[in-house]
Structure prediction request, 144 residues.
Amino acid sequence: MTPADELRAAAALLRTLATAATPGPWRQHDTHLDLGGHTATVLSGHQNTTELRAWLPTMSHEPWDETRNVWADASYIALMDPTVGLALGEWLDHAATAHDASVTAAASVWPDPADAAERSAWVARQTELPALAVARALTQEQPS
Prediction:
């Protein structure tokens, strides 16, 4: 699989999951459950149209009990709502297109098969490594 293929696969995965998810924005909220204590929740919607998206129980009777870490988790989940997934997918697609352009350019500059190592090295330097790292983390692929 080429780096461009990896980038596009991750972009497609993000788009699939983001479009299937409840539209954002999402937000984190502290909810009190009477006898159940406090819990971190992720909500979507605005004002009276708010809906629960995720519930992260603390089993604690202390609001914002940091020892349970669920508020940080809920904040992160809310931050990464579907609009972020779609934007990340677009970035990965852009990186894939740029990689393909680098391959095409390198082939025209170094067309001789004897220049394959130099051509490959130049393409590798042009590859957007942070985007490729994100793609691999999303698809759980290891570098080849």
About this structure: The two ends are 8 Å apart (CA to CA). The chain is about 55% helix and 15% strand.
